[in-house]
Specification:
Structural class: alpha/beta
Strand content: 5-15%
Order of helices and strands: EHEHEHEHEHEH
Number of strands: 6
Helix content: 25-40%
Radius of gyration: 15 Å
Amino acid sequence: LLVWSHGYMAGRNSTDSAPQAWVGHFTRAGYDLYRFDREWIADWASDATALADAVARAKAMGYRRIILAGQSAGAWVSLAALQRGAAADGVISVAAAHHGVVEKMRDPTRARSEWQHMLEGIKRGPRLVVVNFADDAYDVGGRMDDARSIFARTGIAADIIDAPEGFKGHNAADSSFARKFGACIAAFIETGKKQPPC
């Protein structure tokens, strides 16, 4: 099972948005696809707890492997669910964000410290893919260095795709990104082996 968690667009019901194209690598491999819909921005901590509970229910239904994946706020809540003990086998986080655009943040250090705290709280060993793009208005900077350092210390198996050439901005994971990176993302989640260009 792959559980997709969408991001948000101000003033729009984001439950209408489609999962990113690279998700097709998993559905073609036989994964069912569920969506974790949150109509409007609410309390991300309770969303993460609800997602962790949903993973437990899916395991009880008989799903052997469960992957959490999302973009922006959906990526954040997927990682936070893992921090809260979700029994997922992997997480794919694309342009994780929760604090809004950097230029409107009252305290950008809070966004980074909450990111660090979340990653440090991931104790079990699922495989993680963390994607971040250059020129992302939601990125306070330094988070991929944090991820490398924290995962090295905690022993989490992770593939970090940091500022891939030719892809810029918060919504850069388009169909071109899927064509270039979809297969190697799926390969890492399934086998733990990094393949080019990942």
